[in-house]
Queue: 2 jobs
Job 1
Amino acid sequence: MPAFIFDLDGTLADSVYQHVIAWHSALRECGLEIAMWRLHRKIGMSGALLLRAFADEAGREFDDPLKARLEALHTAHFARLRRDIKAFPEVPELFADLQKRDLKFAIATSGDLKDVQPLLDLVQLPHGIPVISKKDAPNPKPDPALFLKAAEKLGSRSEETIVVGDSVWDMLAARRAHFLGIGLLTGGYGESEMTGAGAFRVFADPAQLRRHLYEAGIP
Amino acid sequence: MPAFIFDLDGTLADSVYQHVIAWHSALRECGLEIAMWRLHRKIGMSGALLLRAFADEAGREFDDPLKARLEALHTAHFARLRRDIKAFPEVPELFADLQKRDLKFAIATSGDLKDVQPLLDLVQLPHGIPVISKKDAPNPKPDPALFLKAAEKLGSRSEETIVVGDSVWDMLAARRAHFLGIGLLTGGYGESEMTGAGAFRVFADPAQLRRHLYEAGIP
């Protein structure tokens, strides 16, 4: 039976647009003007790679003090916007359906555990479900390390492991790990962008995935 | 020689994400929870149709008092976010390049003229360029009326008229008017979504369009 690895930000919680705004504000405060849509297309990459991508868009190098300042500003802006974030519909019901069928699943997020705890509360993650975060696999997505670590924790083989994510970076990391990727449209990407990045199936959101679990071979 | 009709919001000014946030806040204040990405995919439709689309997402009818309240709340939230909006790079230079070549162009926006004036100032629209707004063509996009009115104002025939827009709704309205549509990625849609809606060419932003005017047959 399949085992599921869920991305958190933008996949289970509606937080992508707040990240776009938070990064936009942080960059602007450092004198860097990058269009919203360009930031949006990079969300889902993590940590160091995200800043590398922003530097590329800005057409200049970011030194360490600038990177630290950007990270701190993003954290501050995101904290301010966090109260507006909600879980997507039927996420707790999806978890319950998986548990009812004895299917294993984990959360894999590139955030720091302390930053992601409020989101885990929001999506009502059941007790005992593994959460793999930055400290477990520091290499940022689309590096496959985070998902590989999650599968190791679940004890699932590559042919039975399915990654559910909202960004092309999730799908690319899933491919590199030899896992199947299921894309959700919740991150604001178009369906063909997700299939182009290797998604096996694309669903609108967790609620639609829940009603189509049979497409992943689950009776 | 081609004549250009430019959409304003999201095409010349980086305002789509602020509209998403403003609608999200307005809807939530009325007890309606719709995911950000679903709102994003509707921006670029106008007025009555946008509210019709939101009602569909919310799974209920919106009566007239609710519609009026949503519109007023959106206007208030958007006004608060407007100071963060910038023009996309090289928009004044694009206008200058068109004028240098004696090419006709107009702005076609489904907003009220009083609401769009700050955006027109932001993109530094040259004096004398026609601006077609809601009062000239009340039917909302993807109805082609707004673009047809703009072409009439420019005196351009359908085979020489090019619509530049950032949303699939612009491309659909352009097709219905028998005009060529050029899509920009500035609204956050993927390239294949724009070509799928009929875009003749897709460019990243106004700056890239400016460097590829020859692809529209302009020497």
Job 2
Amino acid sequence: MIIVLKREATKADADDIQAKIKALGLKPLYMPGTERTVLGAIGDERILGTLHLEGHPMIERITPILTSYKLVNREVHQADSIVHIDSIPVGGKRLAVIAGPCAVENREQMEKTARAVKNAGAHCLRGGAFKPRTSPYSFQGLGNKGLEILGKVATQFGLPAVTEVVEVADIDHVEKHAAAFQVGARNMQNFRLLTELGHRTKPVILKRGMAATVDDLLMAAEYIVSEGNPNVILCERGIRTFETATRNTLDLNAVPYLKQHTHLPVIVDPSHGTGIREYVLPMAKAAIACGADGLLVEVHHDPVSALSDGQQSLTPDDFVVFMKETARIAEAVGRKL
Amino acid sequence: MIIVLKREATKADADDIQAKIKALGLKPLYMPGTERTVLGAIGDERILGTLHLEGHPMIERITPILTSYKLVNREVHQADSIVHIDSIPVGGKRLAVIAGPCAVENREQMEKTARAVKNAGAHCLRGGAFKPRTSPYSFQGLGNKGLEILGKVATQFGLPAVTEVVEVADIDHVEKHAAAFQVGARNMQNFRLLTELGHRTKPVILKRGMAATVDDLLMAAEYIVSEGNPNVILCERGIRTFETATRNTLDLNAVPYLKQHTHLPVIVDPSHGTGIREYVLPMAKAAIACGADGLLVEVHHDPVSALSDGQQSLTPDDFVVFMKETARIAEAVGRKL
Amino acid sequence: MIIVLKREATKADADDIQAKIKALGLKPLYMPGTERTVLGAIGDERILGTLHLEGHPMIERITPILTSYKLVNREVHQADSIVHIDSIPVGGKRLAVIAGPCAVENREQMEKTARAVKNAGAHCLRGGAFKPRTSPYSFQGLGNKGLEILGKVATQFGLPAVTEVVEVADIDHVEKHAAAFQVGARNMQNFRLLTELGHRTKPVILKRGMAATVDDLLMAAEYIVSEGNPNVILCERGIRTFETATRNTLDLNAVPYLKQHTHLPVIVDPSHGTGIREYVLPMAKAAIACGADGLLVEVHHDPVSALSDGQQSLTPDDFVVFMKETARIAEAVGRKL
Amino acid sequence: MIIVLKREATKADADDIQAKIKALGLKPLYMPGTERTVLGAIGDERILGTLHLEGHPMIERITPILTSYKLVNREVHQADSIVHIDSIPVGGKRLAVIAGPCAVENREQMEKTARAVKNAGAHCLRGGAFKPRTSPYSFQGLGNKGLEILGKVATQFGLPAVTEVVEVADIDHVEKHAAAFQVGARNMQNFRLLTELGHRTKPVILKRGMAATVDDLLMAAEYIVSEGNPNVILCERGIRTFETATRNTLDLNAVPYLKQHTHLPVIVDPSHGTGIREYVLPMAKAAIACGADGLLVEVHHDPVSALSDGQQSLTPDDFVVFMKETARIAEAVGRKL
């Protein structure tokens, strides 16, 4: 931790802060400069955090040296973690494709879509039962009934199910019907939800929040892992910027950044990342090219009739092309779909 | 609703979409142009939403004419709503100041701070018991014990208590100890929480999310009001932008925008909006100058020892000046503190 | 300058970098930690910049201790600078209001508008002759003819003229007709233009770029001042964010930040900062409340006929109210309009 | 153009606006609704722009139906444009790689780097002589002397030279030494520069501004093309967002968007797009995977000694790997490097 003192800070101020650092069993450093004095504190930065120096009137700025995420950090765990959704490995040489509709609408829709994605080669089936929607007047999902349909259709087609959980009270029910929990962008910092998912064993697909930095995402993952569940899959799905030509700005820079800083697998959702059907395939290819471990993609047997996200859902025919073309990129980077 | 068709759309496509609009009992409009055909649909846009035209392959763009928030819209309710936190009115000529520490730390801290803010003229006491923190290694709040301390100290000093609620399961407990619920920025789109608060009667201070537009904020308020609780107070607290000199970018444009578009009261939190003690007062004055109905401000009897947000907390002495100077601005805009 | 080495850096790497620091006549510091070694370099950071350590393979991160702007920094020049536009002081107790149309359209428009703003109490007259427009098919300004009209009308009404300069080649001509140069948001980092304006003596109103941090703005001002022209007035006019309800997001946090970090005067443009006529007055009041030294505001004798920015221009009647109400806020903060 | 009237607008207001539309020879449309009246105007939207309806007090919102860029629009020119930098085609099946240092430093540096990129298979040589730098105390480039070095070295190695032009007065000189003009992000809306480049014939690589939407970029290109120079190459190089882990946020969504909306070639600059050497290759691969027509990449024979951008420059060895790995992706999308 680097502590820059204010210009007006005296030697006595510096001594006082150094004494506090020492009192915690850490090593203080003193660097008087011509215009500012800089202090250092060496040791576990989590202990340093308990000093709460931010409020000190003589401190101008505090810069941590180390990241605050310890368990998800690649430094302490150099090898790639492979997280299994049921029998499907995510994070190794083989890429995982999780496909399905935005929302579970009815049994027939799920069966038709599941058949299509299964035949084209998808590894898992997605479908939302609880839909967080900006407007209270939009379709909110079928709730528990939707979960049951998803669970049954997933079993029927031999595809592990992935679905969003939005509330601690629903976790048990979701766990019963799905092979993996999905935490949506709006809940990335719902820390109570993260903490409770940390007590489970099924994997968690953690989507990046619209205003979350990649480090915020890693800290959110740290909540789950530090509670005991190491099975976290990170998902880049676009951030909110001034650009409105696409629904979100898919930040693919995040992929090499995350792969460098964490051992957790990283997947990409080009459907929400673009919001426009025609751009889903090119951005899926880009995601694989820069190192993503898998894709989360919306497919609907009939997008025109979809109750949500129709404009970004692939048709079954689109999805056949999608699997073929992304496979070629996978091969070009030495991986397999 | 304005529907711009793709260049390649035929007359038959237009007819087909017009038929769908008619089938819902709405009035379709047809505007053939030289390069594009534009369709209109007149009627309740909530019904129009059930058409799910977004996924239609021949539609280029859909623009709503009306806003999706109906109940919080000033058009249907022209007079300012006044929401009471206990006996304190928010939204009228008199401005409300809600002050106190970021987090409840212990009984002594709360008493000292409550005494200071009460003496300086604050109207309500704030203090967090459940603290959403980016890192799992930061202080997470005292939980229910914190709620009890807050409730007791608030009663002792005759100040209605305001505190954050982060989870449906906590609502009953918070309701018992506080006069108003606060929904934090990270939970602005926790729709389950909003829905459940819509079933209560105590007021809800709804803080704008870091990536939320002002219309998103109004839609979130609509969730609460449409479930039956009209007592919503909106709070601007800064958004996330590329600017890092301050903790957030306080978007005061939101104040006149919200006052024009909704009848709900609007308050401002200059503490989170800036993150820096020295800027809290100037931005509080700016907030009142542009029409805010109140202020939410962090005060700590000893910021250097604060367990969170020390760098943005006012001291008791600062707060005396704060009340005096903001009162002068209030007077200059024809209001009272 | 704080230099954090990579985890894999050796003692030899640290020695090598320290030797480079010493070779420049600066003082190196060595702080070995448990997980990272941190180096310090004490002395003039402009000299340190010539080391170009950013590309070093063993360096993880470099954090400057001091700001890069030296001349505009309040540390070296504690008193407020007062910059005169002709006889109008900007930066002292008295606030300056610069008003007029977005673009000079013709003599009659300028005379009508100048009379209106003069009568209401404005101090300077604005009007653009060279209009940077997003589309090549929009009105681009009258050019030199516009400058002449502006100059004549300004003289006629005894109001110093302020106008935008977009190109080095135009500087002489602008200088002839105007009392102050305005550098628009799109040219804030047109360093050739800044450098050349640094060789003149008339004041420069430097508007913040849409993607510029406040520190970027200060660095741009440093270009002008370091070339010899100390007469720079900074102008906050809104930044680009995800919020689209207003034309820009007026970042009033910038006002107290800039007043703290620089001695230069700071004015605010609530017209571009909001883009909507109804919000111009509330945001002007907010700007003064948080410490702005003046206002730049668009007024048109007939906004409905304006060739640009009609939607954000005040009418003469609006402007009378504007001057009256902002004066009341000025008084409440101990200043005068 | 769709014109939404304010709630309080009367039939007379609507008639008045329709009469104005008719007077321009365009076709007005009238759509009375239950809560708002909507008007349409059909015809050339550039003519519609001369109406300046934005300032009308009874108009709530105006939405264009068509884009404002006409010449660069793919609708009027369906086939891909191929722009030649000397003999190198950009925009066809073959991808173009433009490589070289950020800044021209001296003859030896340019020769060493040129030899390295030539041997690895680059098609053009880049190198900046005029460097726009945030700080006046940073290295500003060698100016005309740099241009001469670049020109000579480019000829020596048979690589067409690409270099930035920052000012109208420099165009002739740059034209003499380089095969293509580069317009940097900070000058994307320097309309005087764009207009003058429109009078030349050599190609212009137009980089997206840090706060520019993709439509702003297309409008900037329209400036050049509408003045007579059709040889424009668009370049995505990252935008400014709240994310600070990388220098910019590379918006690869822009690639499929631009390829769909314009016939101009689109290249990507992964060096500025990430700012970190290790991410340059993965993002270059992503760029090609989603459809980019070429790459602009910084290579330095010795990045540790680079006078600017050392941290994002590839070494000659890195660049050999870069060419090999990007070629594999090119092949996977049916193209060639």
